[in-house]
Structure formats: C-alpha cells, structure tokens
Amino acid sequence: MEFQLLIEQLLNGLQFGTMLFLMSAGLTLVFGVMGLINLAHGSFYMIGAFGAALLAEITGSFFIGLMSSFIVAMFAGVITEILVIRKLYKKDHLDQVLATFALILIFSEGIRWIFGAYPLYLNIPSELNASVSLPLEIIYSKYRLLIIATGILIAFFLYILTSKTLLGIRIKAGQNDREMISVLGVNIKTLYTIVFALGAALAGLSGALIGAIQSVEVGMGEPVLILAFVVIIIGGIGSIKGAFVGALLVGVTDTLGRFLLPELFKLFFDNADANLIGSSIASMSIYILMAIVLIFKPSGLFGERSA
Amino acid sequence: MMSEKKLNFLILIFLFLVPLFSMLLNDIYITTLFSKIVILAIAGIGLNLILGYGGMVSFGHAAFFGLGGYVTGILAFHFNNYEPIQILVFEFEGTNQLLFIWIFTLIFSSILALFIGYFSLRTTGVYFIMITLAFAQMLYYFSISWPTYGGEDGLSLSLRNQIPFLNTMDPITFFYICYVWLIIIIILVKFILNSPLGISLKACKENEDRVRSVGINPKKVKLISFIISGAITGLAGSLYADLNRFISPTILSWQMSGEIMILVILGGMFRLYGPILGAFFYIILEQFLGGITENWQFWLGFIILLEVLYAKAGLMSFLIKDKYDEKTSS
C-alpha cells in the first residue's frame, strides 16, 4: 500500500512538474532571448484559464476551451508585447520588474472587472474525469495522465523547434548576438513578438489545464509564476532543457516533500510535532532546493553564463 | 523647481505638521494614514540604501519587514499570555516594552540579513533578484504553515506595545514615534553614505574590480550594507505591526517586497528622501483611487507603467532640477 501511494505521489509530482514546465518554457525563452524579466507571465496563465472557462461555457466543449486558451493567451501576448514589452528590452532589470508588476495589477483587476470576484469553474468532461488502472495495481486519474502526456509532448515539440527548425536557430542566434542576426536580415522585432507570444500561449494552456483541476480565479497565476521563476533559476536561464529538468525537480521535490518529510520526522518526534515540522519544512523545500543550487552553481544547472 | 535640500526640508516640516492638520480637519485618520506613510518610507529608505546606492536589486525585503513584524508580535503575544518563549532548552519572557522590542528586532533582522546576504551576494543580476525572493518566500510559507502564531490567519495584538511615560495608543503620539525614527534613520543613512562604507558601496555599483584593486573587499562592503538595509526595513516592520496591532503572512509576501520596491522607484532612487515621497504618493493614490473606484489597482498599474516607461528618475525629479538628473537617466 505504501508503495502504491508513493508511486501515486510521484506521478502527482510529475504532473505538477510538466505543468510548471509549460509555464517556465516561455519565461526562460523570453529571458534568454530578450533579456526580459516578465513578472506578468502569470497573467497569461490566468488569461488562458479564463478564456478556456468562458469558451467552454459558450460552446459546451472542453477541448475547444483548451484550444482557445492557447489562442487567447497568444493574442494577449502579441498585444502586450507590441504595446508595452517592446519598450522594456533596452531598460534595466529593475524597470522590467516594475513595469511587469504594473501589468499584473492591470491584468488582474481588468479580469476582476470583467468576470467579477467569484471563481469560475471549468469542468473536466466525464470521459476524462475517471481513473485508470496502471500496472502494479496503481490507480491514477486519467486527466492527470493527460496533463503529463501533454507536457511531455510539448517539451518534445519545443526541443525540435529550438534545435531543428529555422525559427529555433534564429532564437538561439538572438540569444547569442542580437545585433548580428538583425544585420543578417532577420526581422528581430517580429522574432521577439513570436517568442513572447509562444511563451504566453503555453502559459495560457497550462492555466487552462490546471484551472480544470483547481478553480479559475483572479490571482491564480502569481503563485505559479514564482514557482516558474524558481524552475528557470534552478535550470539555468535561457535553457529549455534546464527548464524541463528544473520543472520536474521542483514538481517532484514539492510533492514528495509534503508526503515524505512528515514521515521522516516521525522517526525523531511524536506524531503531532512531526506533522507540524515536516509540513512546515516541506512548504519551503523548493526554495531551499533553489538556494542550494544557486550556492553551488550560481548560474543554475544548465546555465551557460551569469545574466 | 527648487533645490533638493529645500524640498527635503519642506517634506520634514510638512510631516511634522501632519497631526496639526489632522486636528484642524478633525479627522484623526489622517494621522494614522501618515504613520503608515512614514513607516513604509523607513522601509523604503532601508531598501534604497542597497537598491539605489548599491545597485543590489533585492526582491525579498518583505523578509525583513515581516520578520520585524513577527518579532514584535511574538514578543507581545508571549507577554500577554505569560508563557515564556522556548527555543531548545532556553526560555525567554515576552515583553511589551518597545525599547526592548526594537533592540530584538534590530538584532534578529541583522542576523537574518547576514544569513540571506551571505548566500545571495554570491550571485548577481537576475539571480540575485530571484534568490532574495526565494528566501523571502521560504519565510512566507513557513509563517503560513506554522500554526502557533496564527498561521495564515495572523495574530492580533490587543494593545500597542509600550514606552514608559508615553501613551502609544494615542495616534498622534504613535505618529511622532514613527517620525522620530524616520529622522534617526535619515541621519544614520546620510552618515553612512558619506562614510568610507557608503563611498565604497557606491563605487561597488560602478565597478567592483576597481574597488578590489584599491584594496577594499567589495563583498564585505556589500554584505555590511545589506545587513544595515535589512535591519532598517525590519525596524519598519516592527512599527508596522504596532500600528496595525496585527501581523499576518501578508507582510512577508512577495507583493510586500514589490510594494516597497515600487515606492522607492516611484519616489526616485539615488535620493535619500525619494522613498518618503514615493510612500506618500503610493498611499495617497491607494486611498484616493480606492475611494473613487473599486478597481483602483487597475489604474495604479497604469500609473506605475507610465512612470517606468516615461519618467525614470522618479517623482522627486519633477519637483527639483539638479545635477543628479543626468546621472539617473543613464
């Protein structure tokens, strides 16, 4: 029984990790290519979730909702990039932090204005809202498995995109020397808009996927945003591979930490104390992980240079 | 247009007269509001020491602000229920004497700043921003999951903590306590900025290699400044806890760090009095916009955005014109 529970928690960690990866991929690309710290990335997560909830409500189809989350967040990304983000590339990190913080306020309040303060619900279709039996007598949610599969699929797609396509080569070139590639005739402005919109779209999709498990509400993006930052810092900024490894590491550490640490402390303390101490430390575990990584590798696991 | 010195003087005079205006308008809430402004200004001055003058973008100053609040709250909590504080085998009595509480706050936030600074200063740039954030988040989640002091719900104090011969429950007295601290902090930071420490801190921001080449250890300079900055912000947190007679994990949240940072930048970095003006505008804006629309944060976002995109040198540069403007626009 203990073993099945452990595997189940591991799968939960994996599911959490793949979602974080969808969030982090855009964040790390935007930082790596444009050198921009985008605190408003969590807003696209929220916008995607609201878009999905709205369109799923109108059309009655969960999958149209999911697809529209991608598209809605992408459009929001394009508009934001052209109106605001573009002006920030040349500014220093402090200005970027502040301006994108302001964007969070605008997006969150804007959404609250339109949709009201109450959370929306995005219902998982009944064929997915079931459990499947896996080998070794493990029973697990179908929907969560779908999330894991989607995450891995997109990771694969991003890997192909960044390493095998022209766009990916340009993105990489932009990371290394933006002047050179604009001299070579690549429209750097459009490239930046595409990268930003892609990141926003992925964040939107993950918002919709998670929104179906939790609720769709204002401010849902910020906790995830902070975690996504932890992921890209652990993985090394600008690296898709780093984001993937970092996301899984964070997802599994957090989930297993909450499960195992109280058990571990039971060896030393009585039950109540062990639960208390264990869960307190578990809630900090990923930040401890990040601090440790940064102390030994100040530019992250796969980071090439210090930004 | 006036000189910076004159504006600074006007700011202090204006703040000093706030309780008078408040009494003339027969609205004591104004004094309480300005206590909040003064406290946030102190936190901002603390952050600005390393942000504006040292170029260290700490996105985790809520850690110190919150720690100051929690030290204050916890000491008072134990004083009120007569239970000693147990740390391993040691036992401490709680206290409601502000003079002791301030000393404890300063000690604890310095220790925390030493710890956070020691590790964070190994990194630079965006990694520094994020590691300071990570440390603050650790404390935030710890405070939520630790139920002894209220966990997520926070902790209320029935009375403000005491100073002999003063009635701290009186809004005007409390305002002047905060005001005196503001003056002390301004004098202290001014002294530091003109001391070898402050000069080498400013030099570190420009070029660390050169600082090292004249035989000064830049890491040490930055760490000491970080500790002073953390202690000042911690003190502000302590005052904030007493002002509201309430502490909750919110004061450790990353939004709090963002707020302190915003008011520093809003007022103008590189200027000692910038955070005071920043705190003033931030709080007044919050009150004003909050009064006319429920969605005030929406408009606040716009104002901050415009300020960042078009008026980088901060509010103070609207009011004064001097040599700093060229420097800040670079």
Name some characteristics of this structure.
heterodimer; A: 307 residues; mainly alpha; two-stranded antiparallel sheet; 11 helices; 2 strands; 74% helix; globular; B: 330 residues; two-stranded antiparallel ribbon; 14 helices; disordered C terminus
Describe the protein's architecture and organization.
The complex is a heterodimer of chains A (307) and B (330). With 307 residues, chain A is mainly alpha-helical. Chain A has one domain (2-219). Helix content of chain A is 74%, strand content 3%. Chain A has 11 helices and 2 strands, in the order ααααββααααααα. In chain A, strands 1-2 form a two-stranded antiparallel sheet. With 330 residues, chain B is mainly alpha-helical. Chain B has one domain. Chain B has 14 helices and 4 strands. Chain B has helices at residues 4-24, 29-51, 62-81, 98-120, 125-145, 171-194, 196-206, 208-213, 218-244, 254-267, 274-292, 296-310, 316-319, 324-328, and strands at 85-87, 90-92, 155-156, 246-247. In chain B, β1 (85-87) and β2 (90-92) form a beta hairpin. The A-B interface holds A 31, 37, 84, 87, 91, 93-95, 97-99, 101-106, 108-110, 112-113, 222, 226, 229-230, 233, 237, 276, 279-280, 283-284, 287-288, 290-291, 294-295, 298-300, 306-307 and B 51, 57, 59, 119, 122-127, 129-131, 133-135, 137-138, 141-142, 144-147, 254, 258, 261-262, 265, 295-298, 300-305, 308-309, 312.
List the helices and strands and how they pair.
The complex is a heterodimer of chains A (307) and B (330).
Chain A: H1 2-34, H2 41-59, H3 62-83, H4 93-115, E1 131-134, E2 138-141, H5 142-164, H6 166-176, H7 178-183, H8 188-211, H9 221-235, H10 240-265, H11 271-296
Antiparallel strand pairs in A: 1-2
Chain B: H1 4-24, H2 29-51, H3 62-81, E1 85-87, E2 90-92, H4 98-120, H5 125-145, E3 155-156, H6 171-194, H7 196-206, H8 208-213, H9 218-244, E4 246-247, H10 254-267, H11 274-292, H12 296-310, H13 316-319, H14 324-328
Antiparallel strand pairs in B: 1-2, 3-4
